[in-house]
Specification:
Elements (H helix, E strand, L loop, with lengths): L1 H15 L1 H15 L1 H4 L3 E2 L3 H13 L2 H6 L24 H7 L4 H26 L4 H14 L7 H4 L1 H14 L4 H18 L5 H23 L6 H29 L20 H5 L22 H10 L5 H16 L5 H7 L14 H20 L4 H30 L1 H15 L9 H19 L4 H16 L12 H17 L6 E2 L8 H7 L4 E4 L2 H13 L3 H10 L23 H9 L20 H10 L1 H6 L2 E6 L8 E8 L4 E7 L7 E3 L2 E5 L3 H10 L6 E5 L13 E8 L2 E8 L3 E5 L7 E5 L2 E3 L2 E3 L3 E6 L2 E9 L1 H7 L13
Parallel strand pairs: 3-4, 8-9
Antiparallel strand pairs: 1-2, 4-6, 5-6, 7-12, 9-15, 10-11, 11-17, 12-16, 13-14, 13-17, 15-16
Helix pairs in contact: 1-2, 1-23, 2-7, 4-7, 6-7, 7-8, 7-10, 8-18, 8-23, 10-11, 10-12, 11-13, 12-13, 15-18, 16-18, 19-21, 19-22, 20-21, 21-25, 22-23, 27-30
Amino acid sequence: MHIFRRLLQGFDRSLSCPWGQLILYAIFSIVMLSPFLFHRAFLPDGDAYGYAYPLLGLYTPAKLLSGGIFWNALNFHGFPSFIGDGASLAPLIYLLRAFLGPLDTLHWLMAINITAAGWFFSLLLRRLNLSPSAAFAGGLAFVAGNWPLFPHPPIGSCVPLLPLLLWVALDARQRPLRAAALGWLALSYAWLAVHYNYLPFLLVAYGGATLVMAWRARVRSRAWSGAILPIASCVAALFLSIPVALLRIIPALLVYGPLSFRAGGLSFAEAQSGIGIGSLVQIFFPYAQFPFLSASGAWLFLGALPAALFLLAIPDRRTTARLCLWAYLLLFVIALPFSPLFWVILHLPLFGMLRGQGRWMFLGNAAAAILAGYGFDAFLRDDRARARIWIARLFWLLTVLAILGGIASAMLTFWQKPILASLDVLFDARFFLHTSGLPLEHYHQYIADNLQILIQTLSLLAYRNAISLLAVIVTALLFCDHLWKHGKTLRPGVTALSSLLLTAAVLWPWYPRLPLTQWPPPSNTAAFLQTHSGISMPFMNNFANFELLATPHHPSDEENFLFNNETAGPDANILYGLSSADYYDNLLSRRMGRLVTWAGSDQTTAIRDVQFATLPIPAVQKIAMLADRADILSLLNIRYIVTAWTLPEPFKKVFEESIPPYGIPMRIYENSGARPYAYFADALDVMPVDEKAAFDRLTSKKWPSMKTLLECDHGCPSPVDGKGSVTVTRPSSIHISVQTQNKTPQLLVISENNLLGWMVTVDGKEVTPWIANSVFFGIPLNAGTHHVELRFSYWRMFLSAFDLRASRVGDPL
């Protein structure tokens, strides 16, 4: 007991010093991420493997200086990935990339963001006059409330900025100059490093906190002059950050945003992703996944102990606590499915492009963590004895329910076969006639899988469920007054230490991990494509994952990862240096997005009218549709199709493998009619510039050989025959060089995404290109030998926003 007291005293001393808390948060983050930081594992989940690792491989200081980061030539026939990816200009990422590889950069970025988020939030709570122990526990609750966000660099980078900006707003009345300077630095970093969907949350929180402080200053001084300093500090910070903001806002909102499907905003139905009933269960049991309860819209977990402290703070009459409670309730209502408040927000300027009202709980969890800090101090003072009793009873009730669930899990396991047989008979008799007609075995396996998920959710034999229950039990014990009869002096340290240990124990298994020996992940399809030049595209592999892997086998994280890795889909293709027609980005251009989706992509976003890959029709019909559209695949230079399905003529199978451990086939088919990257058109179909009409004409006709659709309003070329030679070299992603020789006038088609930012020169003289096949460059050439160059420039793209000649519907310069 003496040793324990000494340890608690040392822990308390660490909490009393801000730098001591910083060290504790750093130790916490390093321990929690130790498998990744010390080269034992990597993250196989979608945000890391499918997004962060590939793109961080592109973001190097050398490419930043050369401008190469501004055009991703490997996907979507070229796309300025930086406009939709908030990590592309983040200073901290380039600092880490100067010394580390992509994997280590992500892992240490996560550690830094976790440490900074907890520490900044702790400083915020100390600024609100809470005790050091309460501030530390509140910081842990805030970190836990955002734990799923950290593997996504531009979203994870938002987390530490929120408490920093709130702290700045609170500091503005007493130290306006310091607050303005820190606000400017924080906002400038946010403009460069934070996801577009989360930037409004930072601005709303910063602006709202500033208005609250201004109002309180006005009340105290009994004059409006008292409100000037906080507002002036906030306005100064915002104004000073505008030049930095324009580096991203101009390209995203004024240059490429109007060319995307997001330009019109999202409908109320499209934007839905709110709090489900399952989300409420996850407040206490974060790994609970009930098949019949939605839980994907929001993350409400703070930890069992912080949840109890949050409840204890509800009666608090202090102004800040009441404001946080009302803010939490308001944000909770916004995050509900089909919330009328979210409908109003969706119709505000700029907010119409935001998806998922559940994301508003990013701010809600911050308000809840502040309340948890207030509840901690109330707990230390022995306040609200009656409330503590009811909270303890609630947590004992949760314990009983969890134990009953564990018993139910055991019973379901014992009688699983007869239960499944009864459910299958019921489904066959009542529901099968109302399905889309997949084989009966498919639905039976789906029922079995959901029953297995329910059994695993209720089982107390799994570590993640058992440790979550232990956290609930410990919380109930801590709220029992007789526990502290002879140890009230230990209460701050014991409670804070319990919060730390329980948070670490519960969240430890959250991030999936695979051994680093499997990196880079081996891929037979990628190995084949690396030795065969040409653009590839995955076809219906998300559906194949569901029907061939997930439904019949209920795969582990590793098995699911191995399957997805063999599809060579976006953005994993970047890991292997492969060119893919497919891509995922919220700001994908409409022209290319429509055409790639028509050709079979199920990844391109917000393609509302042509997304046949996800139509509720049998796979055989979709395969027939793909074969009928082979000329569009050829027009898009797609030579290889990676799929788990069997494709008919005109596609020729050139590769096949069986993916372990279930032997699921993965095939590569060659489209021998695929056009080269650059060529002379041998026939023209000329029409005025019209985005929608061009797509309709492309998809209603056949396009043999090198026949090309040309959008041209004036000075259109005479007939061409396609005779001549074309030689292409590409020194970098932003520089394309073409040598041509032709005896008669020709139209040179270069299969690069025709977007603003490119300068085209012929023999050193700048020319204005036309639009070929709705998406590519069409460059008229007189007879003779020519040197054609295309160069992409960030600043040319930036300035095109102010060029009245630049079209807003996807036309070239």
